[in-house]
Amino acid sequence: MEEEEEENLQSILQWAAALGISDSINNNNNSASSSSSSSCLGRSLSVSHFPEAGGRGLAATRAIRKGELILRVPKSALMTTHSLITKHQKQVLSSALGKYPLLSSTQILSIVLLNELDKGRSSCWYPYLKQMPRSYDLLASFGQFEIEALQIDDAIWTAQKAVQKGKMEWEEAKPLMSELNIKPQLITFKAWLWASATISSRTMHIPWDTAGCLCPVGDFFNYAPPEEDPWNSTEEIFDSNVDRLIDAGYDEAVASYCFYAKRHYREGDQVLLSYGTYTNLELLEHYGFLLQENPNDKAFMSLEPEMYSLCSWPKESLYISQDGKPSFALLSTIRLWATPVVQRRSVKHIAFSGHQISSENEVAVMEWLANRCQVLLSSFSTSIEEDTLMLRIIEKIQDFDVPTSDYGETPSVLRNEICSFLERPSCHTASVALCVLSSSLRASTVRQPLTCGIVCQKVRTLPSSMGSARDLISPLGLERIQDQ
Ligand SMILES: C[S@@+](CC[C@H](N)C(=O)[O-])C[C@H]1O[C@@H](n2cnc3c(N)ncnc32)[C@H](O)[C@@H]1O
């Protein structure tokens, strides 16, 4: 398997070099030069494995300075709906597409991607397609048990919606795929999920198609959250690349997708790309992974009905951040609510300018928040300690094939859950959950049926909202609250 992966990798790097993709950038004349080379990488970047941060990714082969252009992918190497409609097929595809005007640009890209896959070795994109992940762990591929294991309402709701959307889009696309005579196994829901997850997790923005483009080799960059708010960054203003607030983009002037280093890297460091600002739930939904430390994660808080009438903030602005800080909207609303009714009018401006109203008021606010967190945490069926224990058991089972009767000190609630999940037949969903939950385990996605059910349990340890809800406890000084 590893040998096959290595072969696939070598063939895509050669293929990419022939298309003019290059990490060898001559900054003087701004031209990429490696089309004669046997690999498109090696001058600035190399493919490497980062078990704790995305698996396959790109490492710096030398010290790289912030702002350097590190990879360029010419327009002709970008896989787009347009580039997938070859001259040969243009008429057939265009007239078939014309009959389904309601399909979205993303659905169309999924269809032409599956159509390309259908060509097998005869596709000119074959080396690229061959090295793509075989399955993904986005919310849309979650089964019922994995969804329930998320525990928190908005995560469950988001997952259910993602599954429904996937099914609906597939139903809408099926007639066209049949009309194009795509092989039956590529018209299945599973194949559809693969195509739409490929697009969701690997495409990049281009100005001429809202579905975006697949960018060979550029899509080997793993994710790091943006480090700072570019609008508040003074350093950015004096940086030589002053007008570039993102680390990758299509540059019409050189007709290429260009990738820049967002910070300094030492040789051997993983070079990361910021795909955008996401909470963990959003990362799971769109990319199929989440981060243990995500500065953009949020725990959304619901308020008392009466509180909503005091403010006009949208619900998405009422949250506690990963560092435990309540959002401006949440804090100002609770401050106002905690003020005696007769005084509210006179202090409203203080609350909505983000200032404390009084120390007494601030204590009441923190008490209310702490209580709310406690209620939220106690509504989950397992605690973080139980989830951690569950993870350890699962890892033991995977490593040593421990019989289910051998769970040692496992609390009976967990033991029962493990057993009932083990009885579930859904092997596929379990391995999906497994992948989602532990990037270090990603390398081996084929799991024994033994681990099927219980891996779903891992879901609950990591999804964002719950993680945040628990994490927020610490900064508020309420470490033990979940054990009470
Ligand atoms: C654009 S691809 C990046 C390259 C990918 N690792 C590969 O081998 O092709 C995006 C996918 O990489 C994985 N990924 C990226 N950044 C990650 C991170 N920080 N932690 C875990 N997985 C990550 C996720 O599976 C995501 O959907």
From TrEMBL:
GO biological process terms, semicolon-separated: methylation
Pfam families: Rubis-subs-bind, SET
Record GO terms (molecular function): protein-lysine N-methyltransferase activity
Name by which UniProt lists this protein: SET domain-containing protein
Keywords: Methyltransferase, S-adenosyl-L-methionine, Transferase
CDD domains per UniProt: SET_LSMT
Keyword Glycoprotein: no
Annotated organism of origin: Buddleja alternifolia
SET domain mapped to chain residues: 43-276
Stretches assigned to coiled coil: none
